[in-house]
Specification:
Layout lengths: L2 H25 L5 H17 L5 H19 L2 H14 L8
Helix pairs in contact: 1-2, 1-3, 1-4
Length: 97
C-alpha cells in the first residue's frame, strides 16, 4: 500500500462518525442532535483511548467531515434518502377534533 493510501486509511476511521452524525442530523429532529454529536465524539475519544489516534487526529477528522459534507450532500441519491428519512422522523400532525 502506498503512503497516501495508508494516510487515507488512517484518517478515514476518524472522520466517519462525524460525517455520519452530520448526515443523520439532516434528517432527524433537532431534539436528537446533541445525542448524535455525543456519539460521534465518543467514537473519536474511544479511538484515542485505545491509542489509535491522537486528539489532533480527531479534530482533523471532524474538520474533514464537516468540509466534505457539502460534497457528499450534492449526490442526488443521498438527498432522496435524506428526504425519505425526514418523512419517517417527522411527527404526524394532530388530527382536527
Amino acid at each position: 500500500m502506498t503512503l497516501t493510501g495508508l494516510i487515507g486509511l488512517y484518517v478515514r476511521q476518524n472522520w466517519r462518525p462525524y460525517l455520519l452524525s452530520a448526515l443523520m442530523k439532516e434528517a432527524m429532529p433537532v431534539a436528537t442532535h446533541a445525542g448524535i454529536d455525543a456519539l460521534a465524539e465518543r467514537a473519536a475519544r474511544n479511538r484515542e483511548v485505545l491509542g489509535l489516534h491522537y486528539p489532533s487526529d480527531s479534530a482533523a477528522g471532524k474538520e474533514l467531515a464537516l468540509r466534505s459534507l457539502a460534497i457528499v450532500k450534492a449526490a442526488p441519491a443521498l438527498n432522496a434518502l435524506i428526504q425519505a428519512a425526514k418523512g419517517e422522523w417527522t411527527p404526524p400532525s394532530p388530527s382536527p377534533a
